[in-house]
């Protein structure tokens, strides 16, 4: 019988995106079938850089070129940016499993399922890029999501607060606007892909809310106050608005949290 954390480590360090997707999807199925043993004391090499291909070139976000949406290249570049986010999201979900080894079984069910869904998102988007005579890696990208993963690698509570409930929550804020843009140019295929991603990403952020609240309860600390403190600690004045309020409510945010986040945005 394979072991959960070593198998997840292998998927996380896999450099080929398509093989990573296969491994992530297979892991989720194996876990659901009870085919993975759990050894929280297993010794594995520390990961500071997740497996990724030689391309895309990773640059500072400020150095990414601005392309107009009115051109085929501009639309392909936007799709590529979302594809890169989904690739990183596979790694983030796998790392949440491999790194934090003394969580309830349901935690691993959630994040292995997230990894499988992110893999599907990546494949759908890359297939769309192929139809535009492009491929993943053809445009530069940045590594902000993984950078935040490493900043929160010491504590699952910090990870759940900052990756699902800040970084990925931003995705559910901006995806409706992208859907409208692609609908205006008649690209129904991309619209449908993004609508699927939005629905499932709300579930991913909700998983983050569930496990953040669980960890706060385990430690006897106030979840809302802790979350807002962590947002300020990690983001300072870098919190983006506007927020997709209904999607965030569906993803486990409270109205009080959203009101206070909106105040932090206004100060940014």
Please, could you describe this protein's structure?
It contains ten helices and two strands. It has 268 residues and is mainly α. It has two domains: 1-151; 154-268, no CATH class. Strands 1-2 form a two-stranded parallel sheet. The model has no long low-confidence stretch (mean pLDDT 94).
Radius of gyration: 18 Å
Count the helices. How many? 10
Provide the spatial order of strands within the biggest beta sheet: 1-2
Largest sheet: 2 strands, parallel
Task: State the helical fraction.
Answer: 55-70%
Distance between the termini: 51 Å
Shape type: globular
Return the string of H and E elements.
EHHEHHHHHHHH
What number of structural domains do the residues give?
A: 2
How big a fraction of the residues is strand? under 5%
How many runs of DSSP E, i.e. beta strands? 2
Poorly predicted regions are none
Brief overview, please?
This protein is mainly α and 268 residues long. It has helices at 4-13, 17-32, 72-99, 105-131, 144-151, 156-184, 188-219, 223-235, 245-250, 255-267, and strands at 2-3, 36-37.
Task: Provide the descriptors you would attach to this structure in a database record.
268 residues; mainly alpha; two-stranded parallel ribbon; globular; 2 domains; 2 strands
List the helices and strands and how they pair.
Blueprint: E1 2-3, H1 4-13, H2 17-32, E2 36-37, H3 72-99, H4 105-131, H5 144-151, H6 156-184, H7 188-219, H8 223-235, H9 245-250, H10 255-267
